[in-house]
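Hi L., both proteins are below.
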Amino acid sequence: MTETDVSEAGSGIEGFRHSSKFAEYVAGKLRQEAFKLVDVGCAGGLARGWRTFGDHLSAIGFDTNAEEVARLSKAEHNPNVRYAAGWVGMPDGHPLKTRIGSKAYWHHWPAGRLAYERTYDLRRAREEGRQPQSIDAYFHETMLKQDWLTTPKGGFDLDYARTFEVYAPSEAETDKALENTGPDAIIHLPPYLKAAGFYDADFLKLDIDGPDYEVLRSVTHLLSQPSLLGVSVEVSFYGSHDANDNSFHNMDRLMREKGFDLFGLSVRTYASAALPLPYLDAHPSMNTGGRPIQGDALYVRDLSSRVRADVAAGLSDEKLAKTAALFALFTLADQAAEILIVHRERLSRILDVDHALDLLVAEPQPDGPIADRFADYVAAFEREDHRFFDRYTSRNNYMTEILTGAAQTNEALAKAEAAEARVAQLERELDDERRNSQLLAERCETGERDTEAQITAVLRSTSWRMSAPLRLLARLFGR
């Protein structure tokens, strides 16, 4: 595993680091605040990177698997990290639940047409001892005849503005929130977090394979709190234009309205069963190519932007430092550096900004280290050091090599073809020479026989005058 590899139960987005010297430094400077994490869908445990905050980490993890929650609780050594079993969602009678009604989480779901479903269908056929359908029959007799939730019940809801509505937790809900836990309990997140002292949470991670958008909308009051610095959520790239679909386009609209910007987005592709591509895992799931189906999105408040200047002004110095630490953990050292530079005066009250910048430069870099110190790094950039362009140069050279290699290959093939043609021509000429030589030899042999017969006839001639010279020649040559 590399520094930024995470398990499926990890951060909720690719690129989340296992550790960061910069984040550790920030954690060590926290005096009045902890880093508060809310992890919805925590099976497998908190991602390793969160432990960078050490004793300054405070977290609540939620999962529907009561046994897993019990295991995590028993194994946890940090007294400020706890776990709760239950279904995070909305209680009956919640206005949002009433509005959504019995609509599905998404529409235009393409699952059956994807390669992984076809693999499972083929496996079932083998297990049952039956002949699997041909690929044509699979599509025309099965897939294209199924209703893949093409239209939401009650028609499409196009009132997107209502998706921004804020639902604040009532005092009555808050008083009873912590009592409602267990494998079958519906945990309404806003009152639960308020009762648990987590309404000033720094980060919300959401990955529950289905009603993610529904839960996200149920916490709009929490999203409206400037103290919430970031959110990572699993997104779907399919879906209809219905305002309630669990889709990336709906989530992105909501998060931007609540003051967040998109800073990370991963894409998981799935191939069609019509022409399957290799899987990226030991079990049928993602493919090496295909259409984008799911991914993970990272949203963070852009506190370096002048558009968010009023938000940043209302946050504590430690909140600013924690935002920078978040960026570093999500492999966005450039954004962390921007926080330090834009808010240098404020952050200088709690940490050494220059030392912090040096730590960011020291974080592993994709193309290897350019400098060990921030000042040297910036100087190298300002003089346009070749290493800032090597990635392009290397790629350009690589493409040139490919194209040149192709041209050289074509030239070599042309030469080879010409050589083969010449060899064939020479072989034909050699065959002609062989035939001519054989014909000449045959003619010579025939001529020799004729001459010999003529000589014999002369020798046998009774004319002495005519045969005398030939008899002399015969004596000379031993005939």
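That was the first. Here is the second:
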Amino acid sequence: MDAQNSANDRAAAAAQSDPPGAQAADGDHQVTNKEVRTAVSSSTIGTSIEWYDFFLYGTAAGLVFDRLYFPNDDPIVATLLAYATFAVGFIARPLGGLVFGHLGDRIGRKKTLVATMYIMGISTFLIGAIPTYDQIGYWAPVLLTLLRIAQGIAIGGEWGGAVLLSVEYAPKNRRGFFGSFPQMGIAFGLLLGTGAFTMLSVFMSPENFLAWGWRIAFFASIVLVIVGLYLRSKIAETPAFRAARANMEGLERAVPLAELFKDRISRRHMFLGMGTRYAEGVSYNLWAVFLISFATGSIGFEQTDVLISLMITAAVLAVFIPIWGRVSDSLPRRWVFGGGAIALAIVVFPAFWAMQSGSWIVLTLVLILVLGIIHPAMYGPQAAFYAELFPPSTRYSGISIVYQVSGIVAGGLTPMILTWLLGMGGLQLSLAYVIATCVVTVVCVIAIRPKHIRAVLDAEKDVTVNE
């Protein structure tokens, strides 16, 4: 029996497995406002903490690690090496997605999310304690890489479970809006990460910041992790997973990854989903990671000025993520997502030309437009868009594979690719690559058939939220 039919069978049996009061007369899952608030808030705060930890590294890679953890005879080579360890985290993310996606589809979303937060918090704290290259030689980049791998595994398992907490607690006609809240974690994480480095840069001399000040931001992670673990201890499993557990024996025997490849529609959605992710991943890492070194190194902006611009942009990003998520509940999600990729392709060349004026105001306005307003047109609806590609019994694995495997090239390698293309053919070649990724995304979005999405939705019960 394929994954889709198996999911339908389990959904049909769900009414007999849910606790009293969990099903309405019409078959919908019944949840309370308190349950929804708890699930959405814990997933949003949890993803904010984990993205803070993950993107601290991205900010530090462009400002600190190239000078402290690698031989610096050639600054470009040192920067490439620092970005290479940044990319390692993305390469490790599919492993986290596979492992924790498998566990999340079999034993539940909650337990996996607690485990990922432990791994991320400990890894980030230890990065702050690594001695420099001058102190321990090549052990410094080795330890940095190993801990970056641990971060990648953690975030690889985190994203899928966190977004499903919100999406699977939402009525079908509000999944875009509910699913956008944990997506806001990337904005809050960027705001916290750049904010931490900005404050440290303002209140410290450049020498003290480079010598030891940057480590404070990594050590502070442990406090945030404690808060996140407390919140996650309060959540319950999602209604969709409780329904999928109706056939517990079959669920425990199933291998979600095998089920995904066995089902033709799920298999098709996996590959097309990865293609849709291309422009979104490149977009974020272009503006939030690559731009830091490009703006300070090639244009001549001060480090603090760029970080302040990113902080302002992150606040705007946090506002527009739920706005675009809500829009995707009214318009087809595919249209909203594809429209964001088309808009990115249109503005990327003018955006970089404008920034080279050297004006901080222009830099900030450009970042607000491209990262604060256009990027969330893809990122806001993304959680619901991907969740609706797969049935609940394999959904954690499916969306984790789509998001994390595509993230290797779309996310982790983007700063390296853009830096390499910049050296090979100048800025125009780098930006042409960005436009090419937008074309791939739009083609894949068009190739996803609405009737296949409807088939997944029709096999799943809706959710009714009560007072």
